[in-house]
Design goal:
Blueprint (H helix, E strand, L loop, with lengths): L19 H4 L13 H4 L6 H20 L4 H7 L8 H12 L5 H10 L8 H14 L5 H10 L8 H15 L19 H13 L5 H10 L8 H14 L5 H6 L8 H14 L6 H5 L3 H20 L1
Amino acid sequence: MILRLQLLLPQPLSPHYSSSSTTGLNPISTPKPLISRKALNSHHTPTTTTVDSGLKFREKILYLESLKVNPTKVLQKNPNLRSAPLSSLQSVEHCLSSMGIEQSALGRILDMFPQLLTADPSNQIYPVFEFLLNDVEIPYSDIRKCIIRCPRLLVSGVESQLKPALEFLIKLGFVGANRITCQTTVLLVSNVDHTLTPKIDFLMGLGFEYNEVAKMVIRSPSLLTFSIENNFMPKLEYFLEEMNGDLEELKRFPQYFSFNLEGKIKKRHRILVEHGLSLPLSKMLTVSDGEFNARLIEMQLELVEERQL
């Protein structure tokens, strides 16, 4: 069943107003006030209009503050907010709230992407929700998690960005038990040509077959979010040159690239080298510091026993 989300916005008040209905005077017989030439030539905005504009602007500022949004920051990034009516801002809040997003999360999302405040919910936001529900088949109860984990979804075009990424990932093998979930919808905001394809090509350039790379990224989807220059290259270089690693081990444990190079990989590898010991990547990196130290002592005792035999 295809779900359609309806945008429910408050109806505008009728613009028609008749002064005669309240005064009982005939508009035709009402004498017209005399207007001097000086008044006709005046370009000054009436004081009441200035006051009204100031009050409306103040209302928007107070509204943004109630959402925990920094007014100065968002006005700088989205100048259209100055002329947008308060009702349009409220319609965006209503739209996000309708999908279970709490007000406590709204401020962070709107601070990150102020353009959402002047977005048209029916044309720009609800289509994203419909795509997640119908195309990606994310359960309604998980839509909130998707948006909170990756607010960029809300400013990504469905046809230009999200659908091409989904098609690419499905071909890669993100189907069935490995389908896209609220934990991996972050992959949908990655550009196919400039982000996803280059990472697949990089891994294949190491000598892996396409199906091997596909299995790697399905086991460790975060591989598709890492920078080639800042993550893959330095970690691969250390693995091959300092650890004398075998690429076959990376096939078995692609999560290697998700660990901090300085804080964990180098630190633990150097400790093992100092004691003349070695461990598979998974056993070296996935355990806590306490478990690693305990394993280290155990291996040292085993080494002493072997030397005594």
